[in-house]
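User: Please run a holo structure prediction.
Assistant: Happy to. Please share the sequence and the ligand.
User: Here you go; the ligand is zinc ion.
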Amino acid sequence: MSLLDDLLKNNEDWAARINEEDPTFFSRLANQQSPEYLWIGCSDSRVPANQLLGLMPGDIFVHRNIANLVVHTDLNCMSVIKYAVDVLKVKHIIITGHYDCGGVKAAMKKQSFELIDGWLRNIKDIYVKHIDSFTEEMSETQRLDHLTELNVIEQVNNVCHTTCVQQAWARGQDLTVHGFIYSVKDGRLKDLHVNFDNLDKINDLYHIL
Ligand code: ZN
């Protein structure tokens, strides 16, 4: 008996259902994965990449952390991007933020969350960088939503600034970086239309190749 019997039973039922629908599904996936997408999203339990995109196992490579940040000193995230681009050769990297993000809300508070403070500081930096775009007329929710969108755009830029992505573009690899926002209220994704497939719109200083 396991304390998590419910979960194990769910898994058993799920695997049986998939197997019934497609008897070669698992054997095909066991041989290789070749996802076209890398999803970088928030760890929030309401934002599961596969489910909300209607994708199956094997369809999308996923990295999640608090508030979907791409931090250049984060070896975990950098390794995921490197592997996805160089080995899996994904065609799309999708940064997905979501409204009502606890990480963004926490970053807007003037209080300590101890170990998480350094992580949240990345979001505070974005707020301060774009402070002129926040107006007095904005409600608290509008301010948070605006910062959430800015955060996605900044992370899209951060992906484009990596050596790995610039190397891929330099060798002519088909790779586009996108920014999406998800609404936990209605389950809908919105494209922020910040799509980059080259360095043309990236500040010169970040061009390293
Ligand atoms: Zn979140």
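Helices lie at 5-21, 25-31, 49-53, 75-87, 102-107, 117-129, 140-161, 163-170.
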